[in-house]
Amino acid sequence: MSLLKWYVLKKFIWTYLVTAIGLISIFLVIDFFERFDEFFSRNAPTSDLLLFYWYRIPHILFYMAPQAVLLATAITLSTLARDNEVTAMRACGIGITGITLPIIGASVVISLLVLACSEYIRPEASKRMNHIFYVKVRQKMHYGAVETDQIWLKSKYGAIWNIDRYDPDQNQMFQVRIFLTDDHNVIQKRIDAKQAQWSENKWLFKNGSYRIFKKDGLFQTEYFDERFFPVQEVPEDFEKIRIKPEELSLSEMYQSIQTKTTEGKDMTDKWVDLHFKISYPFISIVLALLAIPLSLKSSRHGGALFALGVNLGMGFFFSFIYAMGISLGHSGAFGPLLAAWGPNLLFMALGFYLMLTLDSEYILPWSVGNKRI
Question: For the sheet containing 187-199, what is the strand order?
Answer without folding.
Answer: 149-154, 159-167, 172-181, 187-199, 202-214, 217-228
